[in-house]
Structures
1.
Amino acid sequence: MAGTDATTLPSDREARRHRWEDLTTWPLMLAALVFLVAYAWPILDPTLPTAVDRLAAVVMRGTWLVFLTDYVVRLRLAHDRPAFVRHHPLDLLSVAVPVLRPLQLLRVVTVLDRAIGRRLGSRVAMYAVAVTTAAVGLGALAILDAERDAPGATITSFGDALWWAWATVTTVGYGDRYPVTTAGRGVAAVLMLCGIALLGLVTASLASFLVDRYQDEDEEEDQARDDARFAALHDELRELRAEIRALRRPESL
Amino acid sequence: MAGTDATTLPSDREARRHRWEDLTTWPLMLAALVFLVAYAWPILDPTLPTAVDRLAAVVMRGTWLVFLTDYVVRLRLAHDRPAFVRHHPLDLLSVAVPVLRPLQLLRVVTVLDRAIGRRLGSRVAMYAVAVTTAAVGLGALAILDAERDAPGATITSFGDALWWAWATVTTVGYGDRYPVTTAGRGVAAVLMLCGIALLGLVTASLASFLVDRYQDEDEEEDQARDDARFAALHDELRELRAEIRALRRPESL
Amino acid sequence: MAGTDATTLPSDREARRHRWEDLTTWPLMLAALVFLVAYAWPILDPTLPTAVDRLAAVVMRGTWLVFLTDYVVRLRLAHDRPAFVRHHPLDLLSVAVPVLRPLQLLRVVTVLDRAIGRRLGSRVAMYAVAVTTAAVGLGALAILDAERDAPGATITSFGDALWWAWATVTTVGYGDRYPVTTAGRGVAAVLMLCGIALLGLVTASLASFLVDRYQDEDEEEDQARDDARFAALHDELRELRAEIRALRRPESL
Amino acid sequence: MAGTDATTLPSDREARRHRWEDLTTWPLMLAALVFLVAYAWPILDPTLPTAVDRLAAVVMRGTWLVFLTDYVVRLRLAHDRPAFVRHHPLDLLSVAVPVLRPLQLLRVVTVLDRAIGRRLGSRVAMYAVAVTTAAVGLGALAILDAERDAPGATITSFGDALWWAWATVTTVGYGDRYPVTTAGRGVAAVLMLCGIALLGLVTASLASFLVDRYQDEDEEEDQARDDARFAALHDELRELRAEIRALRRPESL
């Protein structure tokens, strides 16, 4: 447990990784926010001068470098590197695949995660709300970016985009607005998948809550029955002991 | 536990709050009904003379004052005020946010709640029916109010509005009618959320019912197995006792 | 238990009701089939001569009388009449409300029910398939009847109607076909409700199956642990008995 | 149990069937792939010369013969033939019904099944992904085949077909693209059913996972309580034994 060369001790490396993650939480949150502004602004205001547009692209590359550095450092400090890669797939995707960079915003969820603690029910609810909000918001931005200037497009303002995203994620799908470009359809396909996951999470949470309640009622009955059974055994043992004592008493009488 | 100044005793204040709630149940139901009429009438009949329209607005303000007063009284009588605010979020929203005033109608659910009693299954079913009915009815009124005079609107009669609301809450979403105003889309977004909740509740109730049934079958097997195990223990103890008695009998022989 | 006036004995009346239900099963199935033909034919072939149309109406009235008679007889033979009414709501609705007469076809489900036996899983699956098939088939007939001649109608053939009904019951709702009449929208509203119930049943059945499987695994572990615990108790009791025997043996030695 | 003619021994026949299935796994996978290419190519490229088209048809007939042979051999080697037919319905359908031949591709799932092992959770997830992918891919090919040249068709490219298939299987159903032919509507009906099954599987998996988690927590409490109960019994038995020993000790004192 106490080694001579601290830098090579796995548990020590893991501890350093956790210290690194604690230290970088808020800077990375800030980087995610800067990324969001640089990503959203040129989409929301297409009349921006080219210079600002280019600045936004540079800023986005900068935040990407920040997240890439963070990933590399954490990977190097990880005790079991292949396991680290497997357990943090979204982190890898968001730094490796350019179109998935908005996933860096999920870092916000990680922070909320720590704040909310370990209760399963509330964590599931929080993930559902966070992922849905992120999916609708980012989906609206991405679809607007893809569709706005396409011929025959029906989604041409952020209001349209938000409305379409919400109708899609709830699987209502009126069809008054729909993507016509390949990129837009890709965004839509991901949103539909989020919608199915959302429906599933809402239903599953409710179902597990109800099942848990029913079982608690059954459980109480079971406990009462078991209590009675064990009490019967104890009674019998007590009588046995009385009989054994009776064996001794004649001598003392 | 025994105090001198009864008015400051928490348990006494709580008791007074419950008496207040018992007393105001039916008056508040009536106020909710009056509110519904004053809210729905001008929407359903847009040819009403301006005077009646204004009267309806005054009546709605009056019912709002009634609900505001009720909320303030209950809050003052509450033992733990922050807890009261946290546990009655809909009551607060319905008096604080003007567009959410129709939520005052949910007071009807509270009354049904008491009538139906505590069985979890039937309470969930009742909430599903009540919330869906309220969502569809109020959603239809609100969407008609928002859309009727909008250019390019497809929802222009109460029949259209009800039809659209039902197609939305079931997540079918044909798209033959859809909102075009921002207010209408807001109403639609809430209805879609209700739809997901409805689907979730229906599924979760069925699932928990089925799981409960399966478990009752398993349960019976388990009980039979446990009965056999405890019976075996009792048999063994009975034999033990017989052997102990046999220790005494030689003397009597 | 053995009475003098057999006709007034409740258990005897119930037995006669069950004999009646056994005897009338196949005649009522036939009546339901005749009803289906008389209901569907004029809808599927609108070029029928008026005489045939009228004949179909007469036949439908005849089958209704058959079902009405059956309901009255069963009600009279029932031991607890209010309970009979409460437990057979669809039977009452199908004879009392003219537009719900197609529900008489659900009699087919009752017969299947007996054939399939009591296993919960397969009964739920069978109900889901039967109700969905009935809802889609009857919904298509009803919507075609309501829409065919309406101005602006998009559902004008049985193929369209079936296609629309299936897209509705699965909550997909393309919106390429949709009802425009009030009667048609009523049919659609019921179909959407069936769709939600179908989704709920499919999901709930799968969920309860999976939960049951997981629990069987847990169950086996629990049983093994309990077996070990009871075996430990039996061991201890056996040793106790050995010690008691050792008390006797010194005398015999 | 021990026979003279080994070829007629049921267990020996079953062993030979399993050896046959092991041997043919990869050749059948290859045949399925060849089938997929011969099926998809003429649909994806309608400008193919007639000769290639005919070649594709011949190749498809060839792969069908391969699968038919495999089915017949396995059926003959099966110990209980009616049970074999009942337990492999998709194998039978894919060789017996021409339009269902693409189901032969599900053979790929069988292979994955062996690779992934027996854990229920991951098997359900894998089935969901495999069936959805197969349904969307094959559905897109089939709908394109059915719709491309139909008058008034809205699905005329593979991109459209994939987009439509995904919007259908997630039950979003915008209605910007929809089938107009009877064959196309048949494909759509099957896809919608897959969509409901997908929603059900996702939800059910999540629900069973959550229920399992909740129960594990309850389980730990139960185990602790049971441990305490059994420990109390053991204590009492130990005391009993001490008393019995005390019966003997007086002699030794």
2.
Amino acid sequence: MEIKLTPKSEIELRTARLQEKLTQQALDGAIILLNSDMFYFTGTVQTSYLYVPASGEPVLMIKKSLSRGKAESPLKNIVPIKSPKEIPGILAEFTYTSFNRIGMALDVLPVNLFNRYQKIFPNTQFCDISPAIKEIRSIKSPYEVELLRDALSVIDKAHLAVPSFLREGMMEIELAALFEAEMRKRGYSGCCKMRAFNQDLFLGNTLSGSSGCAPSFFDGPVGGNGVAVTHPHGASWKKINRNEAVYIDYTCVVHGYTGDQTRIFCIGELTPQMVKAFEAAVFIEAEIIKAIKPGTPAEEPYLLALKLTEEMGYKDSFMGYQDDKVKFIGHGIGLELDEFPILAKGLKTPILPGMTFALEPKFVFPEGAIGTENSFVMTEKGPEFLSSTPNVITYIK
Amino acid sequence: MEIKLTPKSEIELRTARLQEKLTQQALDGAIILLNSDMFYFTGTVQTSYLYVPASGEPVLMIKKSLSRGKAESPLKNIVPIKSPKEIPGILAEFTYTSFNRIGMALDVLPVNLFNRYQKIFPNTQFCDISPAIKEIRSIKSPYEVELLRDALSVIDKAHLAVPSFLREGMMEIELAALFEAEMRKRGYSGCCKMRAFNQDLFLGNTLSGSSGCAPSFFDGPVGGNGVAVTHPHGASWKKINRNEAVYIDYTCVVHGYTGDQTRIFCIGELTPQMVKAFEAAVFIEAEIIKAIKPGTPAEEPYLLALKLTEEMGYKDSFMGYQDDKVKFIGHGIGLELDEFPILAKGLKTPILPGMTFALEPKFVFPEGAIGTENSFVMTEKGPEFLSSTPNVITYIK
């Protein structure tokens, strides 16, 4: 693995797509601040302020570190800055002086910071550009898809390594430590990012048996008990027993891109009920993959899964136990974990070529969580797997 | 280690301190949303909305998971909620109907979410309550200090374990994986939290030799190269050589509280220059510890260190290399890594008993980063170490 710098052609394409949106929305330009957006449009996350005009070259103003930002970003106009107060003056030097309507990502920008920008641009109307950015970012280029494949290859290797260290009687947290180290030593950068407010990032779920059924604040089918009330999810102090489902669901961030994958392990044997549920999850995944194609509305995978689970009698366990369910079966993945498309009830936006997403049919029973999760890219020919570990339960003697 | 639930007496004390501030600021109450604030005032981070009236019992409205939130929080009034739209109706049931001025943490609340609350409370003036919350949270109770000691004991054990796995020729990222696993298996919850916008959390710094001098966006003296442009800090793919300073600076979050500690290792021998700089850092720490007492202005440790480093001829290397310096020598630690007090130039707020902070005199040279970092609590008698690993360079043959 090596550090990959974003090619100039990628940045140019992304900028052009943003400028098209700016023009459509009659905006003079956009100020980009959030790290994930900053990286997408510049290739760097050095502490910076990016101005993308509706037409013309963007200006990247770097506070710290300028030398590193210049080495990382292929943008033409990169200048030093000490405070955002200098932005209007710097932009004037690039002949950008009209700021009637400016886009900012108001889904993430804190109020106090917004007020600061309103003071710097007293006559400007700031408009929320985040829906446009999310839409642009949801369509991945072939370059981005390759980065995501790298992330999946790292999580693949970690999942394949589990039988070498999973032992009866070890604590979930010990297994988590070993699993995370497998990803980390291969280039996992650390916690994945979520865009939604207050969605604290965490490392992943390493759960055994009944831990899979712990009720959770997390907007996912499975939560776990965690090792602290402040981080009430993921691996706990529970010991892993024979004949329990060991559920390992992790994101893996490599080159900034977030793969997401779940595999099931067991020391000994699972109950027939759990085996049957696992097979149902694999079947649902296969049916969804057969059914969806470019243009399929985002809610269809969920609705199809719902229909199938009801037919199979799994209504109470699908995507959470009883009343503690989530109403989606997948989500977009990229620089953040909660990207478009969200494969949820009520969302009719089409799944388009270039969209990358995780699909996670899962069941939760009092005896544990079971199911599968894989990452995909939608191509012109339909969805394509981004990983290669076998979609099976791995038994350890 | 076990999961610790916040005692009722802690929550009552914290609530009383917030209510005092609300009364002082003529606020009817505060709506608390951010996880770290939520945990502080309720004992849970289940997806919730907390209302703290200027007087009377707080109301915790839980969306997911109610059962878990009830088990975790000692608050009296805990009710279910589906959407924040229901907040005024629920509060009316508790006879809270006056919302002229309400406090919210506007330093973290995104604009779109703020607008949503403004619609729910159309006649309310929302005021920033974050300075008051930060001030309250900066004074730790003896209970909180004990939790922090647990965090430091975990990072102590990880630092002490390093000689058992640090080997010449291993990559920084491999060392990071092993170090993190040592913390993780003992109850480290995962990435620490920072309150400031865009301060992406990361796992820590495991740097060797020249990596310690990489310029960085991070608001700290030492950055590192990282394994991805999106996460441009921390361990890299560089191999660790003999006679290099191996710099391991990590936060460790246990029970939600963030310990912070740096130790230096070396396979072989360090140059006399590096050894001397290390001794200077330890000397500076000792001088600061002697000099500060309850009431000392927050900038004094930094100014004292600056004076000492100038006298010792380390001006160019202190807290960063040449132009890439930070202007502080320590920071508050607690539920977040960037708490009060900030031991920085220009900050005159007093360091009070109960304040917990990391002190990190460090030097950066082209050949590497070196220094020390320990976590402290200010007591009536002066600062007290929270950890116990020896403040020395650990040599490995």
